[in-house]
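Journal club side-thread
Mid-discussion, someone asked how the predicted structure for our own chain would compare to the paper's figures. Pasting it here so we can look after the session.
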Amino acid sequence: MSSNLSCGIVGLPNVGKSTLFTALTRKQVPAENYPFCTIDPNIGCVEVPDDRLKVLSDLSHSQKIVPATVSFVDIAGLVAGASKGEGLGNKFLANIRETDAIIHVVRCFEDPNITHVSNQIDPKKDIETINLELVLADLQQAENILGKLEKKAKASKEFLPHFNLIAKIIKGLNQNTLIRNMDFSDEEQEILKIYPFLTAKKVLYLANVTEKDLVNIDNNPYFKQVEELAKKEGSEIVPICAKLEAEIATLSPQDAKDFLSSLGLEDSGLNRLIKVAFRLLDLITYITTGEPETRAWTITKGTNAQQAAGKIHTDLEKGFIRAEVVSFNDMITYKGRVGAREAGKARSEGKNYTVEDGDVILFFHN
């Protein structure tokens, strides 16, 4: 997984995807800060909100703050037939294969001024339309892979488990079952990671509702439909008002906060979306802080100290000696690393230490 999280946004035309993406890109990070982030017209790179960074930066008198980022890849409104190249679907389906998760925007609002592709609001049917396109795209890919594996499996037994897995996937896809809803053994799960199938990715449903519905979400029957479906397949759902997000994106942080609280909301939909995406993908952040910069690093839960060091640089991972770890709370209580050391709160950890969210780490290496 890349050092920053990436999510592909899918949805039918006119569900609010473009409005949402515009809101995201208004908050876009200047590309030059992130050399690894190619900003295409359809890729937005957004900062992950984290109040801890400012606090640590003040303690360390850092010259700059570098938050973790999330990339959003906008897939032009998918239409029925995208897998066969209808609309711009095919080109963009290739982009989404590289992402960590899929954000599926579903229209859950009535508006006579915004036409619906099939002229009626039916979130369940919309989800089925998109899923069918993703299934067909996966089927096409699986059949190509199987063709290549057939020769390899005949020549060497080590490819047999791969061949059997892809054959099993094709059978499931032909029955219209999404790969993430199929049953796999531990061995099959491991092999599956090699192949970038679309319907194997975790999904987060984004229910686009009206501003009024955000505060009384239980009154929206369309949202209920999507919620039920998400529950059934173990996916997450976040209600959002794309129109409102576009307005918030033009405001200063303080004005945005005041505006949200005047609506009775604590957080923007975008911030909620990022938090849920982190949870969905088992991601956490650890922090490095000093005079040059305070920076958040994204890692998967369960990452050890040596692997975490590799996020910064492969040399750090190779020459790893130890990590000095102070929890965020102890950094604050003892006013920095020196105070934490004096209070005996700076722990020396070896390469197998499992990094926790909010650990403030100093790596020692050869």
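Post-session note: Confidence is low (pLDDT under 50) at residues 31-39.
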